[in-house]
Amino acid sequence: MSFMLVKLLFVGLLVSYVNTFHLIVIGDWGDDNENQYRTARGMSALCQTVKCNGIISTGDNIYPAGVKSVNDPRFNTSWRNVYNLKGIQDKYWLMSMGNHDHDGNYKAQIEYTNVEPRWHLPSLWYDAQFQSGAIHLFSIDTVSIEKSVYDYKKQLQWLEDKLSKSKATWKVVFGHHPPVTGGKYAPGVPKTHYKIVPLLEKYKVDLYLAGHDHNLQHISKDDVRNEETKWIVDYVVSGGGGRKLAPKTANAENELMKRGYKLRFFRSQFGFVSLEFSKSDLLNVRYFEVTKPDTIEITYTFNRTKSAI
Ligand SMILES: [Zn+2]
């Protein structure tokens, strides 16, 4: 009897292993400090236990002012030499840029895509598809939107065109600024909210991933508002990659509530988020904290199920 149970469990694990696609999401990390290194060790610990397919950066890759050139040593000290640990040393990074990256030579971070095969930032905005097109990722540059620079209108048109044509099961948009947040920038970064949220809802995007606020959050519209929009976007803030943490803003929950959003999870801790997609139409989102030395702890999790929508 116990042998059968073990065997069934083994088969179950094998099936889920083959069918899953697993991404780590980390933001606000390139500060060259112990908190960044500890978070990297947490990612390494997770990715030695379960298969990780890649890493998404929600921006602020290099503090305080990006890089000067494609040969800047900070590419090594803030990124390559930090995330060179077992389980993550060969992983592909899908980058976006934050305000601190734009304070330096932003073009050098784009050019670095041609130098380092694991660094993917071919342009200010781009898309990428995985699992035969079932997962469609869109990287946007919210700094362009917030500052109304770098052909931001062209970017918005590009995003709308791409989203409208996408046949993917899962659509995920990521960028630096959070349209809704309960932290330092509560209740949200205005232009990103005004310009991006209508597109996310219209084209049925599942997740929007951001950083900028240095904490870990999950926000989505409350049930009443869901009845109006008929579509639920889950907003994830993953900004605990190493830079000094930001607390929750007093009254943020009420301010979000006035706009129809519910702050479902907030922790001002270092850590990262993982997205586990399965072919059985399930997306499991998990929040990992590295509050204790060399220990990772799942402090929150939520699911999206396609069949239930
Ligand atoms: Zn930022």
From TrEMBL:
Name the InterPro entries on file: Calcineurin-like_PHP (IPR004843), Metallo-depent_PP-like (IPR029052), Metallophosphoesterase_PAP (IPR051558)
**What superkingdom heads the lineage?**
Eukaryota
A GO molecular function annotation here is: ferrous iron binding
The residue range of the signal peptide is 1-20
Sorted alphabetically, which keywords does the UniProt record give? Hydrolase, Signal
Record-linked Pfam families = Metallophos (PF00149)
Q: Where is the Calcineurin-like phosphoesterase domain?
A: 22-215
What is the name of this protein? Calcineurin-like phosphoesterase domain-containing protein
Originating organism:
Helobdella robusta
